[in-house]
């Protein structure tokens, strides 16, 4: 009995699922019927609108051409009527003169004949009939205003619905990913002069291959593309891949999206490890700001009693004992005393990596570089063999130095607003660049015995970190040019 109930329960569950599927299918069909009705009405209205617009154009052309004919007829009518009036007057005058001449000839009177004949001669000489042009000033031919609409009629008869554009195909071999810029190139199966524009969609993903049903990132849309390629600039590669698809559009309809293409967007991405930061560092996402009141109440009172003197600057703190007891909050005592340091949450143990940091040049002190995980909680960057950095000191006199293992080299270069950091782990290269101009500032040559991790320090200032960056092409070129340099050997 129990087995039968279990079997019936399974059948019931299966039927319920099937019923739900059929119900959803019925609902989808009903919705499709509603959509069909709405879409059919829409395209019918658009067709009527297009024909109305076409009729308007034809009516306007007809009106303009009729006006041209009327103007031509009026002008010629005026010319011919003027000539007709002048000719009629000349004919009337000539007939009167002819009658006078005949009467004079028929007269038997001899007295005054000579004078009469002279008067008639003078009148003939001045008669309008002899000054009148007998050539019409305007032609009665209007054939130059005739039209032939046979070609246009053929074109109108060829009117038909616009075809749906073909589906483009993204050419993976022609696509480029470089310098946080992606150029996507696509083609059509055959030329189509009806294409008005393209729509490109892209989204970030950590999965290679076709898009999945459930993705964490939405599609981003780029519209109005006129060419068969498009370049996305200024990207941040915080995922492993980006997926692209494109469709063609004419004036009326859009085609189907192309098969999605996934391009690898390798870059070094990390976050700041809040648990590693000094208590006086306020860490928010990728931004860090010095906060003098970040410790315990008793520590704050001690801080208030201090003066901003060189005795308490990071340049002197390596020789001083810790000033703070470890906080009771878990994970917030990684760095203490005057080691105002915060680390990243991702180690580098292979490859070539690059990131940038923008800092307040008015900071009393700032440093950026890499460190080993063994960096002591009281250690400052560059003060031991476990860290390498560029250090900005704004106390009394501004200076920029490269530091490692408590050795420093003053750098003879302008202080930039942001610094780019390049690491080639296998080659043991750590280089610092002006992030804007990509001018090389300093290079450490060493051999990393352990994985290293991005490290930062700030005192009385702030900075923000930019990750998800590929190694810039100019940095690659600079590394090749400087691969044989040994000018920094004293700091390795």
TrEMBL record:
PROSITE patterns: B302_SPRY (PS50188), COS (PS51262), FN3 (PS50853). Its main location: other. Residues 105-162 form the COS domain. Signal peptide: none annotated. One of its GO terms (cellular component) is microtubule. Residues 164-268 form the Fibronectin type-III domain. GO terms for biological process: cell division; regulation of cell division; regulation of mitotic spindle organization. Keywords: Cell cycle, Cell division, Coiled coil, Cytoplasm, Cytoskeleton, Microtubule, Mitosis, Nucleus. Residues 268-474 form the B30.2/SPRY domain. Pfam families: fn3, SPRY. It is found in: Cleavage furrow; Cytoplasm, Cytoskeleton, Microtubule organizing center, Centrosome; Nucleus. Residues 26-64 form a coiled coil. InterPro entries: B30.2/SPRY (IPR001870), B30.2/SPRY_sf (IPR043136), Bbox_C (IPR003649), Butyrophylin_SPRY (IPR003879), ConA-like_dom_sf (IPR013320), COS_domain (IPR017903), E3_ligase_FN3/SPRY (IPR050617), FN3_dom (IPR003961). The keyword Cell cycle applies. It comes from the Eukaryota. CDD domains: FN3 (cd00063). GO terms for molecular function: microtubule binding. SMART domains: BBC, SPRY. Residues 289-332 are annotated as: Disordered. Oligomerization is required for binding to microtubules. May be involved in microtubule organization and stabilization. This is Fibronectin type III and SPRY domain-containing protein 1. The lineage of its organism: Eukaryota, Metazoa, Chordata, Craniata, Vertebrata.
């Amino acid at each position: 009995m129990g087995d039968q109930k279990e079997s019936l329960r399974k059948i019931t569950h299966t039927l319920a699922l099937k019923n739900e599927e059929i119900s959803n299918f019925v609902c989808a069909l009903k919705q499709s019927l509603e959509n069909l009705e709405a879409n059919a009405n829409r395209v019918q209205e658009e067709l009527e609108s297009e024909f109305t617009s076409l009729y308007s154009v034809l009516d306007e052309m007809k009106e303009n051409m009729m006006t041209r004919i009327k103007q031509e007829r009026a002008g010629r009518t005026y010319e011919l009527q003027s000539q007709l009036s002048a000719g009629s007057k000349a004919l009337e005058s000539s007939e009167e003169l002819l009658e006078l001449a005949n009467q004079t000839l028929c007269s038997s009177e001899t007295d005054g004949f000579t004078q009469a004949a002279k008067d008639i001669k003078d009148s003939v000489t001045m008669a309008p009939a002899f000054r009148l042009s007998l050539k019409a000033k305007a032609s009665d031919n209007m054939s130059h205003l005739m039209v032939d609409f046979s070609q246009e009629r053929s074109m109108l008869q060829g009117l038909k619905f616009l075809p749906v554009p073909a589906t483009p195909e993204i050419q993976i071999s022609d696509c480029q990913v470089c310098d946080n810029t992606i150029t996507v190139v696509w083609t059509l199966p055959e030329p189509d002069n009806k294409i008005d524009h393209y729509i490109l969609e892209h989204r970030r993903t950590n999965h290679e291959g076709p898009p999945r049903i459930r993705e964490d990132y939405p599609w981003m849309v780029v519209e109005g593309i006129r060419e068969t390629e498009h370049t996305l600039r200024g990207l941040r590669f915080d995922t492993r891949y980006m997926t692209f698809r494109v469709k063609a559009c004419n004036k009326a309809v859009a085609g189907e999206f192309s098969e999605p293409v996934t391009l690898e967007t390798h870059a070094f991405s990390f976050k700041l490890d809040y648990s590693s930061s000094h208590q006086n560092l306020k860490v928010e996402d990728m931004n860090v700001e010095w906060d003098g009141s970040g410790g315990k109440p008793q520590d704050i009172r001690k801080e208030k009693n201090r003066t901003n003197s060189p005795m308490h600057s990071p340049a002197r703190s390596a020789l001083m004992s810790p000033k703070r007891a470890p906080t009771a909050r878990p994970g917030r005592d990684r760095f203490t005393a005057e080691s105002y340091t915060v680390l990243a949450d991702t180690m580098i143990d292979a490859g070539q990596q690059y990131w940038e940091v923008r800092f307040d040049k008015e900071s009393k002190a700032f440093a950026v570089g890499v460190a080993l995980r063994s960096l002591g909680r009281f250690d400052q960057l560059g003060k031991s063999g476990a860290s390498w950095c560029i250090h900005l000191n704004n106390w009394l006199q501004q200076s920029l130095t490269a530091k490692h293992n408590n050795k420093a080299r003053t750098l003879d270069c302008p202080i930039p607003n942001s610094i780019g950091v390049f690491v080639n782990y296998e080659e043991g290269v750590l280089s610092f660049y002006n992030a804007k101009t990509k001018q090389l500032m300093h290079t450490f040559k060493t051999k990393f015995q352990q994985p290293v991790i991005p490290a930062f320090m700030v005192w009385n200032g702030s900075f923000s970190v930019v990750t998800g960056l590929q190694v810039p092409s100019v940095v690659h070129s600079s590394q090749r040019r400087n691969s044989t340099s040994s000018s920094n050997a004293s700091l390795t």
